[in-house]
Specification:
The protein is an alpha+beta fold. The protein is built from 4 helices and 9 strands. The strands form 2 sheets. Strands 1, 2, 3, 7, 8 and 9 form a 6-stranded antiparallel beta sheet that branches. A 3-stranded antiparallel beta sheet has the order 4-5-6, with no helix packed on it. A hairpin with a 2-residue loop joins strand 1 and strand 2.
Length: about 170
């Protein structure tokens, strides 16, 4: 027999290990599980809210100026911006335009492009710009350079306004 007092021998093993009654240990475990579950839910919510488009990968808050179209200098002026998640806008050679861009990076899709309808001498350049923009399927942001391309080999290279590096 043990020389320990009877009150010590009668304790349940779980109570002897932590010095807390079983009900308190269970409550503590449930509380910790609830906290962990809450943190996991918050993390999942933040991940779901993260912008997976170009806006969330370095293209936001910049005005991109087209410098080359299919490896040729683009002589007219055309800009592209990403004003908010899932949106794009800009100034084509003649008209301003806007549309959706909801494909997750590195994919690109200029959906539902709409533009104003002014006619100008650079209309052929505008038509080529908007048509090519609508055909782009992939994007790459590298600092102050944005490259849009597609499987057919078409490519648009943009630089941040005022930082054209040729």
């Amino acid at each position: 027999m043990s020389n320990a007092p009877a009150s010590t021998r009668a304790r349940r093993p779980s109570q002897r290990q932590s010095g807390q009654p079983l009900a308190k240990q269970t409550a503590t475990r449930l509380y910790r599980a609830a906290v962990v579950s809450g943190l996991m839910a918050a993390t999942a919510l933040l991940a779901a809210c993260r912008d997976e488009t170009l806006t969330g990968y370095g293209a936001a808050d910049k005005t991109w100026v087209l410098s080359t179209l299919n490896q040729e200098p683009f002589e007219a002026r055309a800009t592209l911006t990403f004003p908010e998640a899932g949106k794009l806008s800009g100034q084509a050679p003649c008209n301003s335009y806007q549309g959706d861009q909801t494909a997750p990076y590195p994919w690109f899709q200029a959906g539902a492009l709409i533009a104003t309808r002014m006619i100008c001498p650079d209309q052929p350049a505008e038509d080529i710009y908007l048509q090519t923009l609508a055909e782009m399927t992939e994007a790459e942001v590298a600092g102050d350079v944005l490259i849009l391309r597609n499987e057919a080999g078409l490519e648009m290279v943009f630089h941040v306004r005022g930082l054209k590096a040729d």
